[in-house]
Amino acid sequence: MLQTTIEKLSDMKLFAMAEKAAQLAASPSVSNLGPVEMLSFCVDAEHDKRRASRLSRLLKDARIKLPSACVEEIDFKHHRNLSKDALADIISGSALEHKANILISGPTGVGKSYLACAIANLACRKHLPTQYFRVSRFLEHMAAQKALGHYLKAIDKIGAVKLLVLDDLGPDVMNAEQRNVFLEVIEERYATWPTIVTSQLPFEQWYEIFGDQTSADAICDRIFHNAHKILLSGPSMRKGKPLV
Q1: DSSP readout, 142-168?
Q2: What is the pLDDT of residues 154-185, one digit of tens each?
Q3: 116 belongs to a structural domain
Q4: CA 66 to CA 243: how far, in whole Å?
Q5: List of residues 6+ apart from 32 with CB closer than 8 A
Q6: What is the pLDDT of residue 240?
Q7: Is residue 180 in a domain?
Q8: Which residues on neighbouring strands pair with residue 235, listed in sequence order?
Q9: Has residue 239 been placed in a domain?
């Protein structure tokens, strides 16, 4: 009878449950388990496998620059104006739940990209669909979608991503088409889903990247509103050890 049940589970594509049932059936201690306990073990196995598979898909789709980056390994000992207390809401995932933007500024090599990627990794572990782009590649991607006639669909797709990472904003000033794209994306996501933006430039200089004052005000007003600002400083961490 159990073998028939295992075959039915496999037929329904509940492979982890089927495998766990077969393992339990072969175990000498199976006689000590009641039907509810056996069912619980099998359901847990299927649940865990599906969560792991979903996480794997999310990480693959996110295309995070540093996929192994994680918040548990952020270096708080290096002198770069970063403290665990200041990042408490971000590390816990509370900032993501409250849909707050996260803005990271600092010179080259202080860990801006690592930090952004670590938060993106956390979002994936919380099963939030995530997308990572370098800003230059993002603008190229959107220009290509527009040329193919898929622009509106691309805007809707980017707007629906639960966490968008735009890494390395500036210093080149955007042209009219680029800043219009940036504005549309930020407007689409405003107060709906969080966006992470990193830049070498100080926050007060971000306005200059967008060139046109009206567009700059509109974009920055939406980016900065209720955002977590992280201002990193100090020497490059790339000298002598991995960036963490």
Answers
A1: HHHHHHTT-HHHHHHHHHH-SEEEEEE
A2: 999 999 999 999 999 989 999 999 999 999 99
A3: yes
A4: 10
A5: none
A6: 53
A7: yes
A8: none
A9: no
